[in-house]
Amino acid sequence: MKAAVCVETGSPLVIEDIPIPSPRAGEVLVHNHACGVCHTDLHVMKGEVGFPLPGVLGHEISGIVAEVGAGVTNVGPGDRVVGSFIMPCGTCENCARGMEDLCTTFFAFNRLRGTLYDGETRLHRPSGEPLSMYSMGGMAEYSVTPATSVFRLPDELDLTDTAILGCSLFTAYGAVRNVGEVRTGESVAVIAVGGVGQNIVQLSAAGGAEAVVAIDVDDDKLDLARRMGATHTINSSHTDAAEAVAEITGGRGVDVAFEALGSARTTTLAVDITREGGRAVVVGIPPAGTTLDVDLARIVRRKIQIKGSYGARARRDVPDLIRMLAAGKLDLGGVISRRVGLDEAPGTYEALDRGEILGRAVVLTGG
């Protein structure tokens, strides 16, 4: 099969021919149809997040089940499926506590070592050299993933569009519903409306937020945010965002401010525009070692909560998202601005790094 391999940091992905992997007990082999292009992959490619290389990135997949390992009963060969980037083991302490988004096994084995949960990768070069897996290694024609992270799709849902459910929408859902706890009538600000930010906008609007303020430096992204449900937009490249939010909210600030870029500057802005008793939710992944300098007295006196959000709870939240999509309550196709073949994956990541991707790009890994 073809796979886009990250050989070393600071270099473009390389398309290689590698053997099709096989699933082991409790695992599923997916013939991938599409994989979303996520900024988190760029952190690995640029060396901003430690990850063993060479490896196959990509963690937003949709496709058809090709084979299942022993003991798998939730899906079978021929099923149309979507995968979540967090692949819960289902048995660690955090999974048992209902906190699959903090699965200890996922972080220890996959994010730190690039393997599945027996400590081995399923991907190798023809020579036998192992290739690390970032989640399921979705930038390839086939992927192996634990059965806990794949979910059947109704026939009416588009297989290309739903690829971005597993990270972009999944991450936004965890932020809006589980951490930000956006309630009907509240005001929301979303700082940086890329792929995840656009989905935070539409989930906040669908959840009944009265005001949804999108903040970015790109007018095209702000126009898209309007279509996704933003009631106000602010281009912070030529407008003071904090002053503009104060004007929109009558000087109060917003109930919930989401930071979806991953920088200290924009996180500080999120805290600054949060009203007393409100929540500043940090969703964007910053380079390792990034720190935040805030006025602690203001945090205490105004009872402001600063909360981190990483993904969602796969086995509970993905079925909810599938139901919302099937009911027509969300629009994934509107978030996707570019669809390319696997051979174009290296250049698409370069375009993402230059800030040229509106919403989300999707690589059609299955042709």
Description:
This protein has 367 residues and is of the alpha/beta class. The protein folds into two domains: 2-167 and 312-364, Medium-chain alcohol dehydrogenases, catalytic domain (Quinone Oxidoreductase, Chain A, domain 1); 172-308, 3-Layer(aba) Sandwich (Rossmann fold), CATH 3.40.50.720. The chain has eleven helices and 18 strands. Strands 3, 5, 6, 9, 10, 17 and 18 form a seven-stranded mixed β-sheet that branches.
Class based on secondary structure composition and strand pairing? alpha/beta
- Extract low-pLDDT stretches: none
- CATH-defined fold name of the largest domain: Quinone Oxidoreductase, Chain A, domain 1
Order of helices and strands: EEEHEEEHHEEEEHEHEHEHEHEHEHEHE
CATH superfamily of the largest domain: Medium-chain alcohol dehydrogenases, catalytic domain
Helix tally?
11
Large-scale geometry: globular
Helix amount, in percent? 25-40%
Radius of gyration: 20 Å
How many domain modules? 2
User: How would a crystallographer describe the biggest sheet?
Assistant: 7 strands, mixed
Task: Compile the SSE list and pairings.
Elements lengths: L1 E5 L7 E4 L9 E11 L1 H7 L9 E2 L4 E8 L11 E4 L9 H4 L7 H10 L9 E2 L5 E4 L8 E5 L3 E3 L15 H12 L7 E5 L3 H12 L4 E6 L2 H10 L3 E4 L5 H8 L5 E6 L4 H9 L1 E9 L13 H6 L3 E4 L5 H13 L9 E6 L3 H9 L6 E5 L3
Parallel strand pairs: 4-8, 11-12, 11-14, 12-13, 14-15, 15-16, 17-18
Antiparallel strand pairs: 1-2, 1-4, 3-5, 3-9, 3-18, 5-6, 6-10, 7-8
Family: Belongs to the zinc-containing alcohol dehydrogenase family.
Pfam family, one: ADH_N
Cofactor: Zn(2+)
